[in-house]
Amino acid sequence: MTEAVASGAVIDAARASGRAALVGYLPAGFPSYDGGVALLTAMVDAGVDVVEIGLPYSDPVLDGPTIQAAADAALRAGTRTADVLRTVEAVAATGAPVLVMTYWNPVLRYGVDAFARDLAAAGGAGLITPDLIPDEGGEWIAASDAHGLERVFLVAPSSSDVRIAQTTQACRGWVYAASTMGVTGARAQTSSVAPALVDRVRAATSLPVCVGLGVSNGAQAAEVASYADGVVVGSAFVRCVLDASDEKEATRAIAALAAELAEGARHPR
Fold first, then answer.
1. CB within 8 A of 61, min separation 6: which ones?
2. pLDDT digits (tens, 9 = 90+) for 238-254
3. Candidate list 52, 118, 223, 260, residue with the active-site label
4. 249 an active-site residue?
């Protein structure tokens, strides 16, 4: 059994040192099981503080075309939930905190308490659940409490102050602030409404607030780091792999992007 590192503690430590944490995402099994582990490890080596491992799902309604393409490739390669948990264990061995980001249906199908048990046993820090709201998450809240896992729920620019208060109260570890309304994907500019959303979240909780959706380069990471506790990057990492001719080239591209983003997160502007 791998001992989990708490992602909230890592983000808090970054905040205390005057910088933002870098949170990096890739789906498990992409472009292969071994290749995915190698890429995630390269991300950590190049400066990613917290790892999000996606559980590939056949109906990713919140994901844009880039992450959908990666999830489709992982599913075609035969990636299953057991492979996701094996990936968690392999990446957690680096010492970085590892969370799984998943739609709720695969967890229900696996069994909520069984998933929490097996995620904790693999060294996972917790779960990010983009399509689960706290009102409907009683079973997950109980299971995560029982197995000592972090719960990361999402808030959005459209969230009311009441909803933000309810959501942050249910979170453990940190809060995920979706900077835009819409699906995932790298964007030319960061969100103009995200700073105000972070302020609203901070009025409701002392938990760290990480901002995701759209960051793709070091300058954008530095901009988000100026007002958020963590910078979440997914599609830009996936694009490195999709554009590479082979896994060796993908590893070089992933490491270079992680280093650039980490530099930005460490020097807010």
1. 103, 131
2. 999 999 999 999 999 99
3. 52
4. no
